[in-house]
TrEMBL record:
This is Heat shock 70 kDa protein 12A. It comes from the Eukaryota. CDD domains: ASKHA_NBD_HSP70 (cd10170). InterPro entries: ATPase_NBD. It comes from Lachnellula hyalina.
């Protein structure tokens, strides 16, 4: 989330690691950020937010200064000839000649984002993955899911190693076999597929590492996580239980703006006011805009296309962007018009007219303002929409919390302060820098972890997705849901059918159990063999649309019911209503049942149909936290 951190923040994290309590289960929270990621942890069920610790020391041995022990790590990944590098190791390679030989993925979280705003970043990363696969001709191809798993493995293997170390009392916070619970912070805008992919990847990694379980995974929005931490630590910043607060979580790749009303003091709980907004705009977009700015500045310096001091033009630009990312972006203020900044660029000849010093590009304040302003304008537009929406619903915002990696930008803080002062003077901006401790990088991971420790007074769990089954329906050519499908003729009754999805569980409902009656055609003496795919759907979840219809575009198969037996067994166990003779064949009726048990879903096939039938096949989905509303117990 942030770039530079005071060393004092690291000392606090190290102290937590050394002196943390040993009683109770271990809980771990992951903030998988676009630019940076962090991991926070706590042992036991203490309700003191100050007891939460962070995993620190992500930087590799060659890093110096504050980067050697910060509690955050770049969400970046590199590959070359079977060798992988992560986080600060990527930045180290980028600062040295010859890094064009590596394949770099940056902002990898945005591979899960499906918005148009992030298309260009996704396209670049997907092209990189394609080039990687071209170098792996004799190996299995890698995809988006593999990258997410790989990065999470990097995060959790380091986490497991640190928590397994013995502290000054000779005890470790984790020993093999100890129960571990996990918490995930999720962007407000993610669809069910992105959430599901993340949950599945985390389950895969915990199984590989033999490190806890995701059976009780708790998921919370990043904006509520940040609000929880800031308001819990800054209780003097708000005065009443009914206060309305706007949270601006300006992160690396996305900005979430949400309005909350405080509905409970202890434990701290919020009710969302209106509809939150989320756009793919954030700190990483400033990096991309600065890159484009540099490329335009040096495009006529054709001699730099040759290797200069061991670095190519692309490598020089990469190193300059890293410098902007670390040293310029957060501290730019924009109020000193005559001040300039210098970016190293080896081989560049001095030219005052072009704004070049020897070996350096001169960057003016106005140039930086042009890079920042479109991003700040987009964020302000979201902010103002939330203010006006809240006012229309008779909620008057009194505070605005600015958090996230980009929330640390002095320029953005001033940008919002000026506009609030001129248009909404009664709203007070509370920037992330107001926190009483320097835990700037772990606000989200700490907030979600603290929220998970006490789930009382939380929202009722309801489905955000649908769960459905494959069903062959008699083809109706005039029905929109069947048009464009792939009809087929059944060999038994010679009717024309099309395969559709029927959703037993619909979104926005609190569902415990659902039963749906199905039927199959069967010739005399023919074995009974049925296979029923189980689907998770997002969005429409409209019944009776064929499997390839656009309204089922997000449907994913998660499991399958299968049952095979003989004709005689079906006949012997049938009831009159479940086994009917008809025109030389039999109609066999059975039930498909779905039952919810916490974060686990059981599904089964019952024959004969009805409450007295016997369960003939069953299955379960164990990791379905992504299917429910965020923050529900």
């Amino acid at each position: 989330m942030s770039d530079n951190l005071p060393v004092d923040s690291v000392r606090a994290a190290v102290a937590n690691l050394l002196l943390g309590k040993d009683d109770g289960d271990l809980s771990i929270s992951i903030d998988f950020g676009t630019s940076y990621s962090s991991v926070s942890w706590i042992k036991g069920t203490t309700l003191d937010i100050k007891d939460i610790g962070d995993i620190a020391g992500w930087a590799s041995a060659h890093s110096v200064g504050p980067y050697s022990s910060v509690p955050e790590v770049p969400s970046e990944w590199m590959y070359r000839n079977g060798v992988k590098k992560y986080g600060y190791e990527v930045h180290h390679i980028l600062s040295r000649p010859g890094h064009e030989e590596w394949h770099r993925l940056t902002n990898i979280k945005m591979l899960l984002d499906s918005s148009a705003d992030s298309y260009e970043i996704r396209r670049q990363n997907l092209e990189t993955i394609k080039r990687i696969n071209e170098t792996r001709a004799d190996h299995e191809k890698i995809g988006i899911y593999d990258i997410i798993v790989d990065y999470l493995f990097f995060l959790l293997s380091r986490t497991k190693a640190q928590l397994s170390k013995k502290n000054i009392r000779g005890k470790s916070h984790y020993t093999p076999g100890d129960p571990v619970k996990f918490v995930l912070s999720i962007p407000e805008k993610w669809d069910a597929v992105a959430k599901w992919t993340m949950e599945k990847a985390l389950a895969t990694v915990t199984e590989i590492l033999q490190f806890g379980s995701t059976a009780d995974l708790f998921m919370l929005s990043e904006s509520e996580s940040a609000s929880t931490y800031m308001l819990e630590r800054l209780r003097s910043a708000w005065s009443s239980k009914s206060e309305t607060i706007i949270t601006v979580d300006a992160g690396g790749g996305t900005t979430d703006v949400a309005t909350f009303s405080v509905i409970n003091d202890k434990p701290l709980r919020f009710r969302r006011v209106g509809i939150s907004q989320a756009h793919s705009i954030g700190s990483s977009f400033l990096d991309h805009r600065f890159r484009e700015y540099l490329e335009d500045r040096v495009k006529e310096q054709t001699h730099l296309n040759e290797v200069e001091n061991g670095s190519t033009l692309v490598e020089l630009i990469d190193a300059a962007v890293i410098y902007f990312h670390r040293q310029m972006k957060r501290y730019f203020q924009g109020d000193l018009e005559e001040e300039v900044q210098y970016v190293d660029f080896n081989g560049l000849a001095a030219c005052k007219e072009k704004g070049f010093a020897r070996g350096r590009v001169v960057v003016t304040q106005s140039d930086l303002a042009k890079i920042f302003d479109p991003v700040c304008d987009a964020i302000w537009e979201m902010v103002e929409d939330q203010i006006l929406s809240a006012q229309k619903s008779r909620h008057v915002p009194s505070k605005m919390l600015l958090v996230g990696g980009l929330g640390l930008s002095i320029y953005l803080q001033k940008f919002i302060e000026v506009r609030l002062a001129s248009r909404y003077p009664d709203i007070e901006l509370v920037p992330i820098g107001e926190l009483p401790e320097a835990s700037l990088a772990t606000v989200v991971s700490r907030g979600s972890l603290f929220r998970s420790l006490n789930k009382e007074v939380g929202p009722t769990r309801i489905n955000n997705t649908g769960f459905g089954i494959s069903q062959n329906q008699i083809f109706r050519p005039d029905f929109e849901g069947h048009q464009g499908g792939d009809p087929f003729i059944d060999e038994v009754d010679h009717e024309t059918y099309v395969t559709c999805i029927y959703y037993l569980c619909k979104p926005e409902k609190d569902i415990r159990s659902e039963t749906h009656k199905m039927w199959e055609t069967l010739l005399p003496g023919q074995n009974f063999d049925v296979r029923i795919p189980i689907y998770m759907g997002d969005g429409y979840c409209v019944d009776d649309y064929h499997i390839d219809h656009q309204k089922n575009a997000t449907a994913q198969q998660l499991g399958e019911l299968s049952f095979k037996t003989t004709f005689d067994e079906i006949k012997q166990n049938a009831t009159p209503g479940s086994f009917k003779k008809k025109n030389g064949y039999y109609l066999v009726t059975y039930d498909v049942i779905i039952q919810m048990h916490g974060l686990r879903m059981e599904y089964g096939m019952r024959f004969p149909s009805g409450p007295k039938g016997k369960l003939r096949a069953k299955g379960e989905l164990q990791n379905i936290a992504a299917a429910f509303n965020l923050g529900a117990a």
